[in-house]
Design goal:
alpha+beta, 5 strands, single chain, five-stranded mixed beta barrel
Length: 121
Amino acid sequence: MKRISALAFSFAALIAPAHAQEDEFEVVETHSQMEIVLIDADFLRPEDPTTSVFGGTTQLLDSETILIELVLNEPISSEHLNALKASDPDGTTQFLCDQVTLYLANGNYVALGEGCAPTES
């Protein structure tokens, strides 16, 4: 089974009901070569530059905002990420990902994008 991101796992475990006995993860759908519009992009880990960013997206689940982690091909600095956000009137950033997977994790939807690179607008 495909590795689920640490962010998705932690998030799902955090909001899972206290009575849940074990973690449940299900792949809902997978997309190849998908552009992701990331809302409120930020770093997942404290390293700068980093190869992992996260934020929200409304593209995968009927316009509902869900949490997504993007694993980048090349590290991105906070300065570059902030410049990407500043260049868009809505503060969003766009990334092209080799693969995007939507998971149902403990009753909550989360997503993981792999092989991602920022698309300069």
